[in-house]
Amino acid sequence: MAKLTHEGQRAVVTGAGKGIGRAHALELGRRGVSVVVNDFDRAAADAVVAEIKSGGGKAVANYDSVGGKAAGQSIIDAAVREFGGLEIVINNAGFLRTNMFENMTEAQIDAILEVHLLGTIYVTQAAWPIMQKQKYGRVVITSSASGMFAHQGQINYCSAKAGCYGLTKALAYEGQDHGVKVNALLPMAPTGIDRYDPIPNMAEEFAKFITPQLRDETAGATNDTPEMIAYMAAYLVSRECEVTGEAYSICRGRFGRVFVGVADGWLTRKGDDVSAETVADHLAQIRDISHSSAPKWLYDEVRDVTLRLQQAR
User: Fold this and answer.
1) For residue range 95-107, what is the model confidence (pLDDT) as tens digits?
2) How far apart are CA 258 and CA 186, in angstroms?
3) Is the pTM of this model over 0.85?
4) Is 157 a catalytic residue?
5) What is the C-alpha separation between 229 and 186, in angstroms, rounded?
6) Does 45 fall in a domain?
């Protein structure tokens, strides 16, 4: 296809000093986007800025820690101050505070929710009026396979990332009339996020699903790099992006849409005998996902059920 257009746009990438965030920033810089490289690690942020500039791109560093409302505003203000405006926000900043649920501390829970969920909310909220006014914007939110499909030792992280999925859907709905498209990434790539906070029982749990033989047979056969995530993000923030309110998993080189579906289930009508016992009697039908749908918005689900009720008369 024709080359996607990014030239002349301005972006904020949070947590852009290392790993996936760095890959995002470098990819956008190569494509002619002016990038605010946000990371509390000053040396890392400065190194990414230098790399973008050495390739002929434009970039500045921002060292605010993602979290509160003031920090979110400061990060977006940096883009406006340095580049005169903003079209793209990629929310990527994050870290781990792992523990089994029964041992997880209040500090571990609060720290993860503050950065991953509240930080994403506040950075995006600061950019939202700019995008609304100009009737154009692109927002990428980093959710996680952990948030959608679960992971031991990460109750705080899973909760925050599941919240990011819901945030993506809600923002996409509100952005429809303003030309703002909002999508989520569920990345899986070597990033070192757990280097200083390893996930409990990771090797043992992994071995339950991925045998040594399977692991050995697929070794070296996967495109398992941060750059793979950045390619998906580059499409989602391009002018040509046509989707909104969607989530995409990039797992070892496999790109796939992630969605929440609802089974057709057991349809009841006013006057039917409904109780906990009849629910139990119909549980197989309620759980049967061979007939299902994936509503884009809440109103789609309401409409679908209403239409089925009309057809059942």
Assistant:
1) 999 999 999 999 9
2) 8
3) yes
4) yes
5) 9
6) yes
